[in-house]
Amino acid sequence: MESSNTQRRITKRSSYAYVTGHFADKVFLSRYLSELQQKVARLERAQARALVEQSLRHAAGDDDAVACREGNDSLAEVTSGYAHLVKKDDPNNPSRFDERRRSSYHTPDGTSGHSPPGDGDGPDLTNPLTATPSRFCMSASNGQPYFLGSSSNWSFSRQVLSVTYEHVCQSPLPTNSLLFDGFAYDLGWDGSRTTQTLDNRLIPSHDYAIFLINAVKFHCGQMFHLFEEDEFMLNMQTFYSKSSTDRAEENSLWYIHFLVILAFGKSLIQRKTRGNKRPAGADFFVRALQLLPDVTALCKEPIMSTEILCSMAWYYQALDFRHAAHNFIGQAKSVAMNHGMHTDMPIMDLGPGLVQRCRKIWWTVYVLDRQMTSLMGLPQSTLDEGVFCQLPSYPGSVHRTTALSMQIKFARIIAEISSTVYGANGRLNKKFVLSTKAVLQSIVAVADELRTSFPLFADERFDGISRLSAHLHLLYYQCIILATRPLLLCCLIKRFNSPLEADSLMASPKVRNPLQMCAESGIQILNILDRLRAQGLLETFLPLDLDSLFVSMVALLVARGVDSRLIESQIPWVDKSHAIIEEMVASGNLIAEFRKNEMQKLEEMLLEFDATRPRPLSDLTTTATIIAQQQQQQQQPVPSSDWQQQPDTCSTAALQPAPLPAETRSPLSQETTLPVYRELSKDSSSQAEDLTTQQIIDVVNSMEWEDNEWMSFTMVQDEA
């Protein structure tokens, strides 16, 4: 420990200090030791590459072993199992290699894959989102503390807002107008279960019920299994054949399921009136909750019960009741696993209809559980080693099976990110750079399949894009942002506390390229959402598009705050993001209204910081232009809130930037620079040429954790 601290002080000191007199020998010794460390690091990398090449040659010779891996035929996937084998026992003599242990899991088709490698000891580079002790945000309305989960989008935005506000305004972030779990909507229910019956007049007519069900099928059916259509529709025919009195007294499990689907359908098609916090379809949903029996009764009909719990979880998620959604999807997973749906159920014994239905249910629960757990920022609880369920078959639609396979792969990448970049490797071993590299390699492994099987423009004769393809591409870019945004937050903190050192870091491709890839993924998300908006396919109730937009906007605003040169064009992506979120707000989405206000405040604060920080004279004109353009875009006033009524400490006009000589800011090196995204078009997007697999591999290869640039983040956790 003492040796590590000494190394840290030497590295930090050598970046800033110039010592004369009797300290000159110490400076010379520090530089000499630094040079030795770099030489040792180069030798280690050379040995590691040699070991990788040897392993690759061995793997290439074993055709059967390579063929049995689903989706692992790329060099990057094979390499990920052998790269980064360096482990340091002594910081002054790092020379021992330790082959990583790799835990296997079972893929949907029964083949085996591998989890990412572990990490040894390394440089003191820590993910600020996994800091110890854990962090909480206090709600101003009820005083309840809310846990800031590591991988949560909500938590990330809170930490970015908090860090930025405290730096710009020199005071803690007020929480009066911030969005907390379950605050946007009000179901009008206190949670008590009563015997009150649903007003028979609220039950829709038979044809209107079919219309609502078809809306759910269109918006959800391609991505998730919420009900078995044949059985569901048969039960509905029976229900409507009853008298009105009998219908009012119905309380079967199917009826509960029916009410949830009606609630979904009504929320999907009916725009809500501004000022009304009760979502459309709330009457149906609340009645379903009141009728939901105890778990002992649910376990007697596990198949339909799992579908009901899964549907309720998804509806809660759409209302931003994230805690309730995570609880319900956990119950659904428990019921499904207790019934053996995660296993390879025997068709000969149980019948093809039952087995196929259980497979659809399991993989829907699996994907939603992975996504909701990540959105909560919690550890993943389901291990793939025990999952043997095969993919379901869709007669006449092989495309749907392939789409489900892609969803599962992205769900596993999300779990890998949660357990490595945001897990123990990010917090304890302090080498989340290695974890980030491994995750990016996993993303590379599915990138080519995504572009081949689900191009955004499948038919060149038409300008539209498929809703399903768009969803998968949005997942793809969200995974890249999720894996790289901790580094983005590190750089923002460094920009606030050590601006000159941040400039030096941004001149290094090893630091800049991952950040630029994160920002460009955000721009691509906006391009896809903008095209969906133009086609009228933007989801304004389901959280899919709003989550993507929120992830993109936060990443882009922070990237511009870190270094505006990460994003070549300033205004187009800002205009697109504003247009998209305005449409969601206009549709009555109260969550989008909160997001809009939060992003406006973050944008204002970061522009203010950029306008007032010391900078080269050559950059002042650019910043002034950006601010002027932003002011012109604000056609309506920002809703008032406590954080917008602070004194002039947060006024841009009250401060003037202090220019520095141009040479104090390092220019962006053009070495291995990623190209900035072009506008979304059929020619580029159909082949995803904007961010090729090779470019991601180049970024991965440039992230050498032994290099001195990463050591600049040594104290970033203490600075946060």
UniProtKB/TrEMBL annotation:
Residues 26-53 form a coiled coil. SMART domains: Fungal_trans. Residues 107-118, 629-648 have a biased composition (Low complexity). Pfam families: Fungal_trans (PF04082). The keyword Signal does not apply. The keyword Disulfide bond does not apply. Residues 325-398 form the Xylanolytic transcriptional activator regulatory domain. Residues 85-133, 628-670 are annotated as: Disordered. GO terms for molecular function: DNA binding; DNA-binding transcription factor activity; zinc ion binding. Residues 86-102 have a biased composition (Basic and acidic residues). Keywords: Coiled coil, Nucleus. GO terms for biological process: DNA-templated transcription. InterPro entries: AtrR-like, XnlR_reg_dom. This is Fungal specific transcription factor domain-containing protein. It comes from Colletotrichum orchidophilum. The lineage of its organism: Eukaryota, Fungi, Dikarya, Ascomycota, Pezizomycotina.
